[in-house]
Amino acid sequence: MTNTIADIGEADVILITGSNTTENHPVISSVIKRAVKFKGAKLIVIDPRNIKIAGFAKMWLRQNLGTDVAWINGMMNVIIKEGLYNKEFVANRTQNFEAMKAVVEKYTPEYVEKITGIPANALTEAARMYAQAGRASIVYCMGITQHITGTDNVKSLANLAMLCGHIGKPGTGVNPLRGQNNVQGACDMGGLPNVFTAYQLVNNADAVKKMEAAWGVTGISSKVGLKVTDMIPKAHSGEIKALYIVGENPLVSDPDLHHAEKSIKHLEFLVVQDIFMTETAKLADVVLPSACFAEKDGTFSNTERRVQRVRKAVEMPGEAWDDWKITCEIATRMGYPLKYESAKAIFEEVRAVTPSYAGISYERIEEEGIHWPCPTADHPGTPVLHGVQFPIGKGNFHAIEFIPPAEKTDDDYPMYLTTGRVLYQYHTGSMTRKTEGLNNRAPENFVEIAETDAARYGVKSGEVIHIASRRGAIAAKVSVSPKAVAGTVFMPFHFAESAANMLTNAALDPVSGIPEYKVCAVKLSKAA
Q1: Which has the closest alpha carbon to 433: 255, 298, 252?
Q2: Pairing with 175, which of 4, 241, 363, 451 sits 20 to 30 Å away (CA)?
Q3: Does residue 195 sit in the same domain as residue 333?
Q4: Residue 125 confidence (pLDDT) above 90
């Protein structure tokens, strides 16, 4: 996030897109609802479903699945045409404006309506509302990123924020909501195939030399590694012989699960390190039990870049170890002795090689976390990014054309499916589905369908329906819901026994490698 969670509550206008905030980020949704109810903030929700947070919105715009670049370009078309953009910010803080302007010129509200289904007058009103706000905040989540154009979608939102100067100040910004509690921290620590910590590129000679000096080694590879979505196909083809999976359950969370399972079964050796015996762990040759959050010391970096202490509350069960101790022991047995006294000692090394964390210490975050970047011990941290300039100097506008989803409906598969989460379950259910109270609230999978579509297929809530895509078929109970919109059904992906990802498309964003979980064509049939 460019800004903080609390900062969202200071906005005059909040634009939510691709985020079922109430169910996926309930704490953040409370901040937004309070801003609307008690501070007079205007909320715009742009989402294919009539989600609960839309009930607090001044405007809910329903876009066709996978058409986000088009409506964002449409808003910018209105803002530029009507002279509502921040000319001073564009002139002083950005570059490539004319190229972006030339592309969005054809995305008139009327043209965009044909692509997105959003009425031209509604899009125009939303554009004016966002542009004319004193402070406006954009909030998004995986409904924006999990497309073949996910990277384009994110760049387009950045275009919109820069165009209006709604960045670098309190109550503004482009704010992605992370899907899990320490995803930000994992990325910060180099949990990506092309970077060391703090996004220092592995093929940057200076970064390699710095790491070699810090670790007392030579010959660190500058080769960019594989994305996780590259690994599974290579396991299928035999190019990858072994996988070591830590804290992930791809046999429920990956798209096109039939293919994912075949790929993993092609491996010669599979290691899974996790806190529960997941569906993936059941296929492993070796399972390494690790500690959960309450059983270890360390730090988490949350969605607002706040680095916070995590303290051991209970002893870990059985033969479980800290993740870092497992890593150290494996490295040692492979010929590279790796020893640390504690999680704190590891963090001290992190500070030494990570510029954005250099000023953060256990002592400084004993009571309250600090937002990175925090380059020195006397630096207060940076709650709001890009206040003076962007890391590259001037912010770069991207000229982006709309590209439709990888899969369209046809006579054989006439409905669209989109997937997501529900409030009472979490990710692949490996933790939450072991909890009786949560299972009482959300015991099984369902197909959320609009009343008109339910009537067309002759089904009612509670009845079983078959749903199939070009990749697989499952059965689940019907949930006729006002959230659903005709022509599109929704399913959560938490339930392994009726896994929505049997159906989803493995087509990837070419830059990030994220699959298109949010759009695929399906057909429905009433169970006998």
Answers
A1: 252
A2: 363
A3: yes
A4: yes
Q: Label residue 149 left, alpha or beta by phi (over 0 means left) and psi (-120 to 50 means alpha).
A: alpha
The terminus-to-terminus CA distance of the chain in angstroms comes to 48
pLDDT in tens, 149-170: 999 999 999 999 999 999 999 9
pLDDT of residue 527: 85
CA dist., res. 391 & res. 200, Å (int) = 13
- Mean pLDDT over residues 409-426, rounded? 95
Indicate whether 180 pLDDT > 90. Answer: no
136: left (phi over 0), alpha (psi -120 to 50) or beta: beta
Query: Could you tell me the pLDDT band of residue 179, with boundaries at 50, 70 and 90?
Result: confident
**What is the model's pLDDT at position 420?**
95
How far is the C-alpha of 398 from the C-alpha of 73, rounded, in Å? Answer: 11
Cβ pair 164, 402 in contact under 8 A: no
* 186: exposed, middle or buried (Cβ count in 10 Å: 0-12, 13-18, 19+): middle
In a domain, 504, yes or no: yes
DSSP string, 351-384: HHH-GGGTT--TTTTSSS-EESP--STT----SS
Residue 269 shares a structural domain with residue 364:
no
pTM of the entire predicted model: 0.95
pLDDT over 90 for what percent of the chain? 98
Contact 375, 355 (CB under 8 A): yes
d(CA 418, CA 223): 36
The continuous run of DSSP H or E covering 281 comes out as none
Among the listed residues 328, 383, 333, 379, the one whose alpha carbon sits nearest the alpha carbon of residue 357: 379
User: Packing angle between helix 109-116 and helix 120-132, nearest 10 degrees?
Assistant: 110
Amino acid at 448: E
Is 17 in the same domain as 123?
yes
Judge contact between 108 and 74, C-beta under 8 A.
yes
Element (H, E) at 528: none
Q: Give the CA distances from residue 391 to residues 164, 172, 211, in Å, rounded to whole numbers and listed in that order.
A: 19, 18, 22
Residue 128 belongs to domain with CATH number:
3.40.228.10
Q: Which two tokens stand for residue 500?
A: 């929505």
Look up residue 425 and give its DSSP letter: S
